[in-house]
Amino acid sequence: MNVMVFDIETVPDVEGGRRVYGLHDLSDSEIAQAMFQLRMAKTGNDFLAHHLHRIVAISIAFRHDDQFRVWSLGDPDSDEPELIRRFFDGLDRFTPTLVSWNGGGFDLPVIHYRSLRHGIPGPTYWNVGDQQREFRFNNYLNRFHWLHTDLMDVLSGYQARAVAPLDEISTLLGLPGKMGKSGSNVWESFQANDIEGIRNYCETDVLNTYLVYLRFEYIRGHLSTDRYKNETALVRKTLDAAKRPHFSEFLDAWQEEGST
Questions:
Q1: How far is residue 78's CA from residue 195's CA, in Å, rounded to a whole number?
Q2: CATH number of the domain that residue 60 is part of
Q3: For the whole model, what pTM was predicted?
Q4: How many structural domains does the chain have?
Q5: Is 158 left (phi over 0), alpha (psi -120 to 50) or beta?
Q6: Are 120 and 112 in contact (CB under 8 A)?
Q7: How far is CA 95 from CA 10, 141, 144, in A?
Q8: 3-class DSSP state for residue 46?
Q9: Which class for 102: exposed (0-12), middle (13-18), buried (19 or more C-beta within 10 A)?
Q10: pLDDT for 202-226, tens place per residue?
Q11: What would the pLDDT profile of 6-63 be if each residue is shown by its tens digit?
């Protein structure tokens, strides 16, 4: 397998909000609050438009050769351009199957805007066959190709009325799900300078997504029963060996529910 599951966590792009809305005399927290209020007035929801998010974490679950690994790109003090560069570097080096939950609807568009903002190349990601012929038939950008598998889209049959939250699907499969946290807590954690907590939360999201992906590969006949069990066992073994508190919490919740 050569699979890279990814997830991003974001906060309001207060510098962008300062420019777009002319809010030059306000503090960052005041600008963020104004951005939320303006979005609420426009849409009835305070979830910001894609181009006004700033990426503060990108986490990866990577299955390659005989190894499985989960981590967050860069260091807690890495800036946004560094995170995006590392993301594209991974695609350039391994050309993996990219897997997400709503990555096509949120994560990737945000990455597009932020890479545009910072001027960060991603030649493998943007290749649709004009440079390498094989990408014409399978690339990261075509919705119905498999090089990027957005599980939310695929499992809903590309029907907006049928989409489901990752947390609920994970819970239905006996996985830990969000474990009492959600993306709505990220801005609060960021203001408290808890970048490590944000990265840990993001890592549990990619773990849930990867395990849903394994189940998906099983039901479509790409994994035998024995191989599926071996793959989930590898995840357990990797998390147990890491001895990190959020991984131990994930394992405890997974074991309580029973995943296989």
A1: 10
A2: 3.30.420.10
A3: 0.93
A4: 1
A5: left
A6: no
A7: 25, 13, 18
A8: coil
A9: middle
A10: 999 999 999 999 999 999 999 999 9
A11: 999 999 999 999 999 998 889 999 999 999 999 999 999 999 999 999 999 999 999 9
CA 229 to chain centre: 24
Q: Which of 4, 116, 3, 1 is nearest to 55 (CA)?
A: 116
Q: How far is residue 202's CA from residue 73's CA, in Å, rounded to a whole number?
A: 11
Distance CA 31, CA 29 (A): 5
Alpha helices, DSSP H only, in the chain?
Answer: 14-21, 28-43, 80-94, 108-118, 123-126, 151-155, 166-172, 186-191, 195-219, 225-242, 245-257
pLDDT tens digits, 75-114: 999 999 999 999 999 999 999 999 999 999 999 999 999 9
Query: Which residues have a Cβ under 8 Å from the Cβ of 58 and sit 6 or more positions away?
Result: 6, 7, 8, 72, 73, 74, 83, 84, 86, 87, 202
Residue 129, both tokens: 């066959």
Residues with Cβ within 8 Å of residue 144, at least 6 apart in sequence: none
Q: pLDDT digit string (tens) for 164-211?
A: 999 999 999 999 998 766 667 899 999 999 999 999 999 999 999 999
Return the residue matching tokens 């997830």.
Answer: 7
- Give me the domain span that covers residue 111: 2-257
Decide if 103 contacts 147 (C-beta within 8 A): no
125 phi, psi to nearest 5 deg: -60, -45
